[in-house]
Design brief:
Elements: E1 5-9, H1 15-24, E2 28-32, E3 43-46, H2 51-60, H3 64-72, E4 77-80, H4 82-87, E5 88-91, E6 102-107, E7 117-122, E8 132-137, E9 141-145, E10 150-155, E11 158-164, E12 167-170, H5 181-192
Parallel strand pairs: 1-2, 1-3, 3-4, 4-12, 5-6
Antiparallel strand pairs: 6-9, 7-8, 10-11, 11-12
Bound molecules: glutamine.
Glutamine (GLN) binds at residues 48-51, 81-82, 85, 108-109, 137-138.
Length: 193
């Protein structure tokens, strides 16, 4: 079978770490710097970073319509942390939205100052029995979901991982761990699409 090619939006944030993870799963990872490069990939990862910065750069370089179009045509997309914020249809407290592709409301920087960054074991039944080390960095959580969204993991009753069709999101950063099970899960999603 031809190797899938996963693009990682390369405007700001943890790009290299995602590519490293994708390659550890035996799949090709390509940094995406221009909108036309989106047509050469099978799926897209939107990394963590600062959602306002990435969102403004996406607008400036003309990414919005192409990502929306390809996603609506079925391209799988995985958003981590800021990537989740960029995909959300609604942002708590009236912040502006960006791609608006996933039927969730998110709260930015939700875990508060005391716990800006932390690591905790998460239970994610879809990827197996062993706990997953969730790395949270000024992370959002999902405040509410639409009917087509499936919750995949919670931490202290807050939704931190979910999917809707071919969109996958995590509030935490699997690319910063040595555990590639979530990237593998995403690759399996692509193979089915
Ligand atoms: N706090 C950032 C935001 O609101 C997200 C942080 C991250 O991606 N690690 O965009």
């Amino acid at each position: 079978m031809v190797k899938k090619n996963i693009g990682v939006l390369s405007l700001q944030g943890a790009v290299r770490e995602h590519i490293h993870m994708i390659e550890s799963c035996g799949t090709r990872g390509t940094p995406i710097k221009r909108p036309d490069e989106l047509f050469c990939i099978d799926a897209l990862i939107i990394p963590g970073g600062e959602s306002t910065t990435i969102g403004k750069l996406m607008l400036k370089y003309g990414f919005m319509d192409t990502i929306r179009q390809l996603c609506e045509e079925g391209m799988p997309v995985y958003g981590t942390c800021a990537g989740l914020i960029l995909l959300a249809k609604k942002i708590k407290d009236g912040d502006r939205t960006w791609l608006g592709l996933m039927d969730v409301e998110v709260r930015r920087n939700a875990f508060g100052r005391q716990r800006e960054s932390f690591e905790t074991n998460l239970d994610i039944p879809d990827i197996g029995k062993d706990p997953f080390a969730g790395v949270f960095i000024r992370a959002p959580w999902v405040e509410s979901i639409g009917k087509d969204v499936r919750v995949m993991s919670k931490f202290e009753d807050k939704i931190v991982m979910a999917c809707q069709g071919r969109i996958l999101v995590t509030a935490f950063h699997p690319e910063l761990t040595g555990d590639n099970r979530i990237h593998n899960y995403f690759i399996e999603m692509i193979k089915k699409s």
